[in-house]
Amino acid sequence: MNGKLQPRRQGFKAIFMETLSEMARRPVYWIGMFVLPLFMSVLFGTLMNDGLPTRIPAAIVDLDHSDMSRDLTQNIAGMQMVDLKDAEESFTSARESMQEGNIFGFFLIPENFQQDLLAGRKPVISFYTNYTFYIPATLLFKTFKTTAVYTKAETVQMVFSTAGVNGGSGVLLPVSISARGLNNPELNYSIYLTNSFLPCLFQLMIMMMTAYSLGEEIKYGRSRRLLHQAGNSVLKAVFTRLLPQTLIWMVELFFMVSLLYKWCHFPMNGSWGWLLLSEFLFVLASQGFALFLFCMVPNLRLALSSCALTGILSFSLGAFSFPYESMYGGIAVFSWILPTRYNFLIYIDQALNGIDIYYSRWWYIAYIIFILLPLPLMGRLKKYMAKPVYVP
Question: E strand or H helix at 62, and its extent?
Answer without folding.
Answer: strand 56-62
